[in-house]
Design a protein that fits this description.
With 394 residues, the protein is an alpha+beta fold. It contains five helices and 23 strands. The chain is elongated, with a radius of gyration of 36 Å. The model is unreliable at 384-394 (pLDDT under 50).
Amino acid sequence: MVYCTHRDLKDVFPSIDEFDSKEALYGWVELFSHGGYKLYESFNTGLVTVLFQNGEDLTPYKKVESYSDSTANTAEAVDIIETAIDVSDSSVFGYGDIIKIDDEKMLITNISSNTITVKRGFLGTTTATHNTATDIYIGVEWSEAKQWLFSEGNDSVLIYELNATNPNDHLLESGDDWSTIVTRYISNATKYLDSRLDGKLPRKQFKDQDGNYDYMIVRTTALIACSFLIRASQPTSEIADALFNEVEQNITALNTGNAKLSWQTSGDSSMGIIREGSVSGSLRIIDTRGAYYGIYDKIGVKITTAGAMGTAKYSVWETDSTNLGSEKMNNGETASYTETVSGDYQILSRGLEIRFAGDTGDTATLNDYWEIEVHGKFEDTDGGMPMSIRMSRR
């Protein structure tokens, strides 16, 4: 459960996507070319767990070193500088294979008969001498373009590309996917807000009647997430401080009851909240007067005769023991009563009145409807003031 979306973050701080923290990788060096493919390496990359090429996540192409016996052995003693090594069977190897003899890793750049040409001391290992008949292990094999490998020991990234694709001509970046980061920070912001709000506030009631979180909750969560994201790259950012100042104000307002959420009953809830359904006419409900002396209802009001004031009629659906008024209206049940629109305050329900208004000549349209949510005059108002806790020393 989270209280906001990426879109909400951009609503409160439109420039938030500028804090995408991916790092570009430069200086790609070609290691070998064969069969329409080339292998490149970039150095001093830092830890790379996710690689992007022109915005494309290359995680599906990620390779890892996993060494297994090739079944071939050295067919000669190998000195410290030799790059053409005789092997017992070269058919088990491919161009670009990363192999290991003893503790030394090597890159195969050419194969001729039973001789492999290699780049020695590869991926940060140390060149060494090797005896004849030493087992040769294969750790990485390349098979398609965009495959890549991060070497922690060499602090470098290798990428296998088609001859026509030079990574120096493309944007290669390391870092987490921005949408994944944003999702994680939104989750953390939601948990942070929960931890700061008064425990009496019911989390499951943070949503309005349409199933949306109250804007105060959405905005505060988005502000927290934006502040956290900015501080991740700019710890002393004044922008992050400004955003968080509003967070503190909102949390204080929520905890002290100075901000009303949709589920809360306020002092004027008995006067009703007017919500338009489908309204195309120019005569509209504009005001309520009095107080509702029931307990709770969503009163349904619908134009059942079109026309101007004095001609148009409205019908009212009130709650009963089985359903709320607006639901009875939507279900096509019989209205509680019908009145002619006069323009003055007129009866609505149980002590509450409504008034329609419009300019001269305006008319009401058939089937225009409204929902008026009311709480009883004598219902307790909800506040967010924390209860006091009595403590004693034993």
